[in-house]
Amino acid sequence: MKSKYSQYYDQSLIPSYYAFVKNMTIEELAKRSEDKKQLTTLNIVIVVLCTTIILENLLVLIAVCRNKKFHTAMFFFIGNLAFSDLLAGSAYIANIFLSGPRTFDLMPVQWFIREGTAFIALAASVFSLLAIATERYIAITKVKVYGSTKTCRMFLLIGACWVTSILLGGLPIIGWNCINNLPECSTVLPLYSKKYILFVVTIFSLILLSIVILYVRIYLIVRSSHQEATNSPAYALLKTVTIVLGVFIMCWLPAFTILLLDSSCRIQFCPILSKADIFFGFATLNSALNPLIYTLRSKDMRKEFLRVLCCWGVLQSGRPADRCLVPLKSSSSLEHCSHKHEHQTTPIMQDCTNVQDSWVGTLAESAPGGCTAGKSAKSFQCPEVYVTRLKTCR
C-alpha cells in the first residue's frame, strides 16, 4: 500500500473515492458529471451572491481604514470579520468553478486547498465573532486588560485568530484525512475524515455557545445598570453585533446539522446528504448580510460608505477627485471643528463656480477653531476632515 502523502499527487484518487461514497462505478460517475458540466441555476445564483459578498466586504474594509473613528478594537475586529467574509466569497467562487467534472481533474493536494480555504474562512469568522464578544464584554464591564499595549495585543489577537484558523483548516492536508481508509470518508467531502468533520463542528459549536453566554452576561450587566445605558452608543453597538451573531447561527445551523449528520451516518444511508450544496449555499448568505447589518445599524458606517461610493463615482466619471464632497457630521469627521459651523457642509456634488465670491470673506472671518484657509482662500481645511471648495473647482 502506498503511503498517504505519496498519493497527494495521484489524479486517479479523487474519482475512485467519490465513486465509493456515492455508490457508483467510475464510469457512472463520469457520465453523471458530464451531465452537470454547465453551471446550474443554483451555482449561478451563488456566483452572483459571492461577487456581491466580495464587493460589500471590500467596502467595509475601505471604510474602516479611511475613517479614524473606526480605528478602535471593536471596528478592527469587525474589519477582520469582513476580511474573513471576503475570503469566504472568493473561496466559494473558486469552489463553484472547480467543482462538478472539474473536480476529477484535481490532484488530492489541490482538492485539500480548495476545501481548506473555505474552512479557514469559516473558522476565521467564528473566531472573529468570539473576539468581538470578548471585546464587548471588556468594554461593558470596564475591565482594563489592554493597558498601554492595547493596539499590540489587539493585533496579536487578530493574528492568533488567523493562525488558529489556518491550522484548523489545514489539518486534513497535514494528514488528518481518510486516504487509505475509505470507510471513514465523509459523504459530503469524500477525502475528509468523519472524525475531523465532527471535531470541527464540535469546536465551532462550543465557541458559539461561549459567545452566546458572553452576550447573555453582557445583557444582564447592561439591564442592571442605569437606565441611560440602554441609550448609549455602546449598547447600540452591542445590539448590532448580537444581530450579526444571530444571523450567523441562523445561516450556518442547517449546514452544521448536515455536517453532524454526515459524521454520524453510514456511507450511502443518508440520501439528504446529496443535497448538501443547498445548505452550504444558504450559509453563503451570511457573508452577504453582515455588511447590510452594519449599514442599517450604524449611521457613521452609512456615511462612510457614501463617501467611498461617491469618490469612486467621481473618479470613474473622469472628474477631479477634489470634487468628491461628502457631508459628514459625525464626530469622526468634525471632531476638531465646532458644531456651530455645520452649515459649511456642502452637498455630495456641488458646482463650485456657483458659489459667491463674498463667501470667501465671510467664512474667512468665521472659520472654526483648528481650521485653516486653503490656497487663495478657495478652501478651508479642518484637521483630518475634508475640503470645502468656495470659489472654483480645478
UniProtKB/TrEMBL annotation:
<dbReference type="InterPro" id="IPR000276">
    <property type="entry name" value="GPCR_Rhodpsn"/>
</dbReference>
<feature type="transmembrane region" description="Helical">
    <location>
        <begin position="154"/>
        <end position="176"/>
    </location>
</feature>
<keyword id="KW-0297">G-protein coupled receptor</keyword>
<keyword id="KW-1015">Disulfide bond</keyword>
<dbReference type="Pfam" id="PF00001">
    <property type="entry name" value="7tm_1"/>
</dbReference>
<keyword id="KW-0807">Transducer</keyword>
<feature type="transmembrane region" description="Helical">
    <location>
        <begin position="278"/>
        <end position="296"/>
    </location>
</feature>
<feature type="transmembrane region" description="Helical">
    <location>
        <begin position="42"/>
        <end position="64"/>
    </location>
</feature>
<keyword id="KW-0812">Transmembrane</keyword>
<feature type="transmembrane region" description="Helical">
    <location>
        <begin position="111"/>
        <end position="133"/>
    </location>
</feature>
<feature type="transmembrane region" description="Helical">
    <location>
        <begin position="196"/>
        <end position="222"/>
    </location>
</feature>
<dbReference type="InterPro" id="IPR004061">
    <property type="entry name" value="S1P_rcpt"/>
</dbReference>
<keyword id="KW-0472">Membrane</keyword>
<keyword id="KW-1133">Transmembrane helix</keyword>
<feature type="disulfide bond">
    <location>
        <begin position="265"/>
        <end position="270"/>
    </location>
</feature>
<dbReference type="GO" id="GO:0005886">
    <property type="term" value="C:plasma membrane"/>
</dbReference>
<dbReference type="InterPro" id="IPR017452">
    <property type="entry name" value="GPCR_Rhodpsn_7TM"/>
</dbReference>
<comment type="similarity">
    <text>Belongs to the G-protein coupled receptor 1 family.</text>
</comment>
<feature type="disulfide bond">
    <location>
        <begin position="178"/>
        <end position="185"/>
    </location>
</feature>
<dbReference type="GO" id="GO:0038036">
    <property type="term" value="F:sphingosine-1-phosphate receptor activity"/>
</dbReference>
<keyword id="KW-1003">Cell membrane</keyword>
<feature type="transmembrane region" description="Helical">
    <location>
        <begin position="76"/>
        <end position="99"/>
    </location>
</feature>
<feature type="transmembrane region" description="Helical">
    <location>
        <begin position="234"/>
        <end position="258"/>
    </location>
</feature>
<protein>
    <recommendedName>
        <fullName>G-protein coupled receptors family 1 profile domain-containing protein</fullName>
    </recommendedName>
</protein>
<keyword id="KW-0325">Glycoprotein</keyword>
<feature type="domain" description="G-protein coupled receptors family 1 profile">
    <location>
        <begin position="56"/>
        <end position="294"/>
    </location>
</feature>
<keyword id="KW-0675">Receptor</keyword>
